[in-house]
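Slack export, channel: ligand-projects

TW: morning all. Re-posting the request from yesterday since it got buried. We need the structure predicted with the small molecule present, not the apo form. The ligand is glutathione; the SMILES is in the block with the sequence. No rush, but it would help planning for next week.
GE: picking it up
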Amino acid sequence: MIKFYYSGAPNPMKVALMLEETGLPYEPVPVDTRKGEQHKPEYLAINPNAKVPAIVDGDVTVFDSNAILLYLAEKSGKFVPPKGDKARAELLSWLMFVASGVGPYSGQSVHFRNYAPEKNEYAINRYMYEAQRHYAILDARLAKQKYMLGDSYTIVDMAVWGWARLVPNALGEEYWAKFPNLKRLVDEISARPAAARANELRTKHKFKTEFDDEAKKAMFRHMTVKVA
Ligand SMILES: N[C@@H](CCC(=O)N[C@@H](CS)C(=O)NCC(=O)O)C(=O)O
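GE: finished. pasting the full token output, ligand included:
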């Protein structure tokens, strides 16, 4: 049985979607990042990066959401083009594009818009600019084809869904009008029964909702440690 270390945040939710889509049996293990549980030594032994998600599958441990998506796709043989297929190489590019671009820029955009103690116009503009540039690239691709890799729904679409659902938080509600093709994909995936079950997972455990000093200390460690 796969142990799935999760919270309701975007990166764990893509993995929850994949687990539900494949039907692989798993045991959800909540990690309440607002309480600092990601820094506990027993969790650091699973993910030294102190973030969710992570999975433990027998003697295999995988962290980083897109690595987990790929692992689960290979394990199940589902939602991934066959090895040797041209689309398999495309899958790698787009998976890394989401992991290294869409996710980090969206995350920083949310941070500087909603959480930074001072309003830093330069940082807000930089991260919003980069986030919307990445979403525009996804939108342009989805204008030409149904899914990120063509006609088939794959883990790339799941990776996109995890973050693109948060376009209103990362950029503002008005941005949906600029990305109609991306919105079409997000809405389609959100309507899938597996997405509903993934979302339900968040209600199975009472995660802390307050963003108080304890949460800031756990998630924004740079606020208390000066390195520059
Ligand atoms: N590259 C990692 C990033 C994971 C990540 O940033 N997770 C967030 C939730 S979306 C987290 O654990 N935040 C808690 C913290 O930063 O302390 C992945 O894709 O899994």
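GE: first-pass observations. Strands lie at 2-6, 26-30, 54-57, 60-63. The CA atoms of residues 215 and 221 lie 10 Å apart.
TW: perfect, thank you
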